[in-house]
Design goal:
This protein is of the alpha+beta class. The protein contains six helices and eight strands. The longest helix is centred in the last third of the chain and has 29 residues. The protein is elongated. The protein binds iron/sulfur cluster (SF4) (2 copies). One iron/sulfur cluster binds next to helix 3.
């Protein structure tokens, strides 16, 4: 009672004691670790070309209430390392079933699914309106940075490290295939005329 009285009287004099927020005109910034439903981050400007998801379906298998539905493509497109990969032709999440557990995020090996913070998703229509399609789920990496700057920076660094490691490995493999300057062996290992 004393606390209530102190806050009530204090709210006339100190703004920080005025805990009522005039939502939706006023909004309290959401903490970085707040989560709601998943989304699919993509790199660059093109939500198809930049989509990180390779339709491996691990998240679909691991989702406890089985609210993810994926159909893998028949063709492939380059992933963030330029490697041809399948992509989801269909990627749906039924948010009327999703329990925001984040298991899909934890199991994804490609940093391709993250938790969103959008919570104003109520609808009078209880079926199709709560089924988020790939076009609803795909959101840019810039958006991810705007809602989770620390995590997004960590993911960017991890992916950039993977790209650099792959480039280094490729360069080392190419160097191993190139004959050294002093070598005079003919292709196939046969000694060349010069070495005879
Ligand atoms: S947050 Fe949990 S329930 Fe929702 S889609 Fe991911 S794994 Fe499924
Ligand atoms: S979001 Fe991740 S785990 Fe799910 S299908 Fe795509 S790449 Fe696989």
């Amino acid at each position: 009672m004393a606390v209530t009285a102190r806050n009530f009287v204090g709210s006339y004099f100190e703004k920080e004691r005025l805990i009522t927020v005039q939502y939706p005109e006023e909004r309290i910034p959401l903490p970085e670790n707040y989560r709601n439903f998943p989304f699919l981050p993509y790199d660059g400007d093109d939500s198809h070309a930049g989509l990180r998801c390779v339709a491996c379906k691990i998240c679909e298998k691991e989702c406890p209430p089985q609210c993810i539905y994926i159909v893998k493509s028949e063709d492939k497109k380059p992933d963030y390392m330029g490697k041809p990969q399948f992509y989801p032709k269909v990627f749906d999440i039924d948010i009327s079933v999703c329990m925001s557990c984040q298991i899909c995020v934890e199991v994804c090996p490609f940093e391709a699914i993250k938790m969103d913070k959008v919570f104003e998703l109520s609808s009078r229509e209880r079926f199709d309106a709560l089924l988020l399609r790939k076009s609803d789920l795909a959101k840019s990496n810039e958006y991810y940075h705007s809602i989770c700057p620390t995590d997004a920076a960590g993911v960017d660094a991890k992916l950039a490290g993977a790209v650099a490691a792959a480039a280094k490995k490729k360069a080392a493999a190419a160097a191993a295939m190139t004959p050294s300057a002093g070598s005079t062996s003919a292709p196939g290992g046969a000694p060349s005329a010069a070495s005879a």
